[in-house]
């Protein structure tokens, strides 16, 4: 999706891929096949490059070492990406900034874990600090003994933490972009729906009070500036509505890359998150983040009972002509994100139901 935008802007995008059959390799004229911890492959990737950027956070230090040696800026920088890679580092830094978060404790400190359980009540959410995503590396633990058993089952050297189980009324995400010279723009907050730890659907704008929208955008701006992020990033949040009708936001996690929750911008916004990321990392003026429709819904294709979800494309086109289909050419396996569907319109409930129904057809449901 970055390659599509780069081509339209006249930029040359070179990709490091695990194999020639990777989806990115299929659409990028310049592909280097190799590993991200192979200095020779990295030097070939970076030869003549203006900047190197990433499509996930699990980036080995070798990438930054080779980039520094070749004089190619890495954006986001290693110092910023740390807070998306390391949940313990993120919690500590956001706490230093006084930003709203669930109560938490380092999993290595059993007294602190016990104290969070005492103050917030069990169960707590246990997470590995590095490498977990889409619900992986996350466990709901109902007691200190259960947490200890879970922790003992982790591979040696894996750090972890526990967090308060927030009684949220909805989950939100804010996409933002910041260029190297400091310009920053946010996209309107959206509501997300998770199923088995994965984002299943998104609706923008989130159906929440205007003052909460403003608060969520301000939190995203503050995080971008304080962590010195360059590129597109996502701030995932919990929204809690108290019995007296007041709302509170809690920061859940950060992602420093174009993010699944921002895929709606491809069809519902003046500047998609993919074009915006290219602008930001190249330190070009950021694009307009205004919406092009009152509402946009996105639904993910999470695995498929069909051999290939593309087998249902004609059926989706016939039944939902308003749907925009985006398939990734990934190999099919259960719960893998194989694509998404965007639907724009004036009725939030209708757009969301249409997007979900179209995605279900692609999943063979």
UniProtKB/TrEMBL annotation:
E.C. number(s) listed in UniProt: 6.3.4.18
Pfam families in the record: ATP-grasp (PF02222), PurK_C (PF17769), RS_preATP-grasp-like (PF22660)
Catalytic activity: 5-amino-1-(5-phospho-beta-D-ribosyl)imidazole + hydrogencarbonate + ATP = 5-carboxyamino-1-(5-phospho-D-ribosyl)imidazole + ADP + phosphate + 2 H(+)
Biological process, per Gene Ontology: 'de novo' IMP biosynthetic process
InterPro entries: ATP-grasp, ATP-grasp_carboxylate-amine, ATP_grasp_subdomain_1, PreATP-grasp_dom_sf, PurK, PurK_C, PurT/PurK_preATP-grasp, Rudment_hybrid_motif
Task of the protein: Catalyzes the ATP-dependent conversion of 5-aminoimidazole ribonucleotide (AIR) and HCO(3)(-) to N5-carboxyaminoimidazole ribonucleotide (N5-CAIR). Catalyzes the ATP-dependent conversion of 5-aminoimidazole ribonucleotide (AIR) and HCO(3)- to N5-carboxyaminoimidazole ribonucleotide (N5-CAIR).
UniProt KW keywords: ATP-binding, Ligase, Lyase, Nucleotide-binding, Purine biosynthesis
Protein family: Belongs to the PurK/PurT family.
Name by which UniProt lists this protein: N5-carboxyaminoimidazole ribonucleotide synthase
Lineage start: Bacteria, Bacillati, Actinomycetota, Actinomycetes, Actinomycetales
PROSITE patterns, per database record: ATP_GRASP
Source organism, top-level taxon: Bacteria
A GO CC term assigned to this protein in UniProt: cytosol
HAMAP family: PurK
GO molecular function, a single term: ATP binding
Residues annotated to bind ATP: 87, 127, 163-166, 171, 252-253
